[in-house]
Amino acid sequence: MFFFILKRLAQSVLVMAVVSAVSFSLFNFVGDPVNNMVGQDATREQRIEIRQQLGLDDPILTQYARFLGNMVQGDFGLSYRIKRPVDELILERLPATLELVFVSAIIALVVGISLGVYTGIRRKSWISRVILSVSLVGVSLPTFIIGIALIYLFAVHLRWLPSSGRSGTVELGWWKTSFLSVDGWRAIILPSITLSLFQLTLILRLVRAEMLEVMRTDFIKFARARGLAERAINFRHALRNTLVPVITIIGLNIGGLIAFSVITETVFQWPGTGLMFIQAVDFVDVPIMAAYLVFVALLFVLINLVVDILYFVVDPRIRLGD
Amino acid sequence: MTRWERFKDNDIVWSFLSSPGAMIAAAITVISILACLFAPLIAPFDPFDPSQISLWDGKLPPAWSDGGQPQYLLGTDNQGRDMLSTILYGGRLSILVGLAAVCLGMVLGVTLGVISGYVGGVTDAVIMRIADVQLTIPGILLAILINGVGRAFLPLELRQEFAVYVVIIAIGLTDWPQFARVARGATMVEANKEYVQAARIIGLPAWLIMIRHVLPNTLRPVLVIATIGLALAIIAEATLSFLGQGIPPTTPSLGTLIRVGNEYLFSGLWWITFFPAIALVVLVFAVNLLGDWMRDALNPKLR
Asked: In the list A116, A302, B206, B218, which could disulfide-bond B186, CB 3.0-4.6 Å?
């Protein structure tokens, strides 16, 4: 167990080293950092002075070490465009993304698992067939098209919900939340449904497949033979045993939600970190791009580490097999 | 037996002819690919020829609704371009970018996969570790990141011109681990078979065995991954273009068209975004169905 986790840790450190090297090289190869700091009319002497102040004359490895040191402390410098510290900007926009991902994850898990269990148990009913066909179409629909369709239907046509933006936020210290006002909830409904749909279909299909598998096993047949109620068999025996793969899915699910939040946030102009990244790419705002790169990599590395360890804890077969 | 009867006797062909879903999917895929590839011959207008565009004809609804004109079957966009023609040209670009990206991913992935499976040892461990790590990050996010970084490295004036190539590289680089895994698995099975051992005994160099003997036998499963990968690549390109990070509006792809049309959705000009979106969804759905069928037909374990 210890060795296993150590191996995974080493792998995580390696990934972070590669990603940080890429973001470091962004600073050096994209544009001239000095030009981004001073105006057009700066003299040659001023430029040289800033060059030395920034330490751009040092050997490349020294610069990289300094970059790593700053990165560990969360310091990515000033945004070229907004002229404010990048870590501040990210922290400011993080609640919007996290709340969106949170609501979507709940929708995807609750609806996905219930529909998965239903279609797994009532395999032949026509409702199951309809659900499965719809989920197949869902896989082929790109996220942004689902978003546009929902906006057109509920915001433009029916005028029930706002089409974009995040309104009605309440401040809890530095954290701005959508959860404490009606307007906040109205604004988060469409983006979170859009974001959850793809993951929902994945979870549905996985849970269904697992249920079908478990229902064929001997201990379910034995439970039937003992005359247990159908309800007890389905939920106490079958569903429980499908939950191991679901844990991995929750991990992948959160990762996938963060990935697709870039798209959803752009469609709905949701002021989160994903939208900030896309805007940063448009304006070649290198500090934000570099920070987002490192931030996302760190998130994925952490999620994977936690999932690996959980897997180990939950399923004794893996522990014994190692 | 005639040649046709022998052809029909082939199990894959039989499975194809007895599956209506696969035949419809294949028909839609082939028709849309042909329609897009021959867009310059079929399309009623050339959307890139300024002499055929008139701003006076802009924002016309489809021909069957009020105010529509018969020569513009699906209406016109904000600049007066015929929607049907723009979609055909846009679809052409989408399909070409998708194919190129899948080819790049396939060449890269299969090469690394075959080497990994045949050589084994440290080489195998390193290549597969990289693939594992990459697979934990969702493809679309990685494509957005690589594309963003790639664009940032280009000087501003070249960014539009090379946008297509950056997109192809970004999607291709996210694709390869799937191919590598499948090719490696197939290679490891083949490498232990007698004909490979025989080739080794007569002293053929490893690269020749890999290319001439192992590679052809890994292509079946690779083909399945490539078909599903094509659907994913088309979606990825559309997504990048929709985010404004992909193909520039001067030579629009389906994603770019949807992005442009999206700005007119609120003023009720639904057809500018609706028809390209439908074209994209139908194309992707057909390719997906085809991939699904191929996976079942080419996988002897499922038969």
From this structure: B218
Taking the alpha carbons at both ends of chain A, their separation in whole angstroms is 8
Q: What is the pLDDT of residue B227?
A: 86
Give the mutation candidate from A145, A293, A305 for the B interface (greatest B CB count, under 10 A): A145
Please say if the pLDDT value at position A110 is more than 60: yes
Q: Which of A144, A281, A304 is nearest residue B136 as measured by Cβ atoms? A: A304
List of chain A residues whose C-beta atoms are within 8 Å of the C-beta of residue B280 = 142, 145
B157-204, pLDDT tens digit by residue?
777 778 888 889 989 988 899 899 888 888 888 888 888 888 888 888
Best A9, A12, A132, A140 residue to mutate vs chain B (most B CBs within 10 Å): A140
Task: State the pTM of this model.
Answer: 0.82
Contact of B124 with B116, CB cutoff 8 Å:
yes
Q: Are B280 and B258 in contact (CB under 8 A)?
A: yes
The first and second tokens of residue B76, run together, are 């016109």
Single out the residue of A158, A181, A160, A159 nearest to residue A169, CA to CA. A181
Distances, alpha carbon A247 to alpha carbons A300, B260, B268, in Å: 15, 40, 44
B136 closest CB neighbour out of A141, A277, A300: A300
Q: Which residue of B has its CA nearest to A139?
A: B285
User: Binning pLDDT at 50, 70 and 90, where does residue A285 land?
Assistant: confident
Task: Report the CATH fold assignment for A92-320.
Answer: MetI-like fold (1.10.3720)
With beta carbons less than 8 A apart as the criterion, state whether B298 and B221 touch.
yes
**A251-263 residue pLDDT tens:** 777 877 887 888 8
Instruction: Give B39: exposed, middle or buried? Use CB within 10 Å, 0-12, 13-18, 19+.
Output: buried
pLDDT one-digit tens code per residue, A120-133 = 888 788 888 888 88
In A, minimum Cα distance to B261 occurs at A148
CATH number belonging to the domain at B3-47+58-298, selected among 1.10.3720.10, 3.30.70.20, 3.30.420.40, 1.10.10.10: 1.10.3720.10
Q: How many CB pairs under 8 A join A and B?
A: 92
Interface test with A, best of B140, B259, B293 (most A CBs within 10 A): B140
Domain ranges of chain B: 3-47+58-298
Residues of chain A with CATH 1.10.3720.10: 92-320
